[in-house]
Automatic annotation (TrEMBL):
Coiled-coil intervals: none
Stored Pfam families: Glyoxalase (PF00903)
Protein name (database record): VOC domain-containing protein
PROSITE patterns recorded: VOC
Highest taxon in the source lineage: Bacteria
Phylogenetic placement of the source organism: Bacteria, Bacillati, Actinomycetota, Actinomycetes, Micromonosporales
Domain spans labelled VOC: 4-123
Originating species: Actinoplanes cyaneus
InterPro entries in alphabetical order: Glyas_Bleomycin-R_OHBP_Dase, Glyas_Fos-R_dOase_dom, VOC_core
Length: 130
């Protein structure tokens, strides 16, 4: 099997709101769109993101009314403080401010208008003695 590209599809109520949030705050570009659907990508990202409106007939019946939940889209960044400042300057308050885990993960989270959670990660040296 040859995988030519990868994408994650998320079901939301307001496709344009999630699409705009991803484009405005994370530099993604809308590559395809139709009523109830948007596909966005970045040339430097390994995975595209798609938003599908709940209830679309193209979805399997068991998934049509399911809202994406419990999924976190993670982006590894070089300067977490700068990203937090940039997002705040754009009017986006973290749903989880910067924190550092004992295993060396520094992270913050923001949430889009549909409840999709984005985690920005910067790897630090693990804390000693933990």
């Amino acid at each position: 099997m040859r995988v030519r590209s990868s994408a994650i599809a998320l079901t939301v109520d307001d496709v344009p709101a999630s699409s705009k949030f991803l484009a405005d705050h994370f530099g993604y570009t809308e590559r395809m769109a139709a009523p109830g659907f948007a596909s966005l990508g970045r040339d430097d990202a390994g995975v595209d993101l798609m938003f599908m409106r709940r209830g679309l007939e193209v979805l399997p019946p068991a998934l049509r009314e399911v809202h994406t939940a419990g999924t976190i889209i993670a982006f590894v960044v070089d300067d977490l403080e700068a990203e937090q400042a940039r997002l705040r300057g754009e009017g986006v308050e973290p749903s989880l401010p910067i924190r550092e885990e004992p295993w060396g993960e520094r992270l913050l989270m923001v949430t889009d208008p549909n409840g999709v959670v984005y985690e920005l990660v910067e790897w630090a040296e693990p804390s000693s003695g933990r």
